[in-house]
Amino acid sequence: MASINYPYPDPENEAERAANRQAADDYQRQEEEAATLLHLTEGLPPVAPELLLEQMRLDLATAGLHVAPPAPLTDEDQGGVVVYINDDAQVVVD
Hints:
There is one protein chain. With 94 residues, the protein is mainly α. It folds into two domains: 1-44; 49-93, no CATH class. The protein contains two helices and three strands, in the order ααβββ. It has helices at residues 14-41, 49-62, and strands at 67-68, 81-85, 91-93. It starts with 13 loop residues before the first helix and ends with a strand.
């Protein structure tokens, strides 16, 4: 379990050891959920970058972030996040 971020690298009491066990359990659960999701996506066609771009913009705006247009930025649009498709057809969030 190499990438677990233990809250107490050197536990000194039972409460800290319990927190580390909980972190390890949480990490294991996340790994299992990720494996399940990967299994469920096998055989599905890839999502079009344009659809993913719009979904990312919607998700970020729903989370309360200001989503600025990619370019050119005006004084009104300064700040927030910019979501765009790069030259490799990947969705980028800046």
